[in-house]
Amino acid sequence: MPKGQAENEAKVTESVGGGSETVLIIEDEEQVGKLAVSLLERYGYNVLTEADGEHGLDQYTKNKKAIDLVLLDLTMPRMSGKMVFEKILEINPDVKVIICSGQSDEDIREGILSHAQDFLKKPYRVKDLAKTVRKVLDS
Question: Quick one: pLDDT at residue 2?
Answer without folding.
Answer: 45
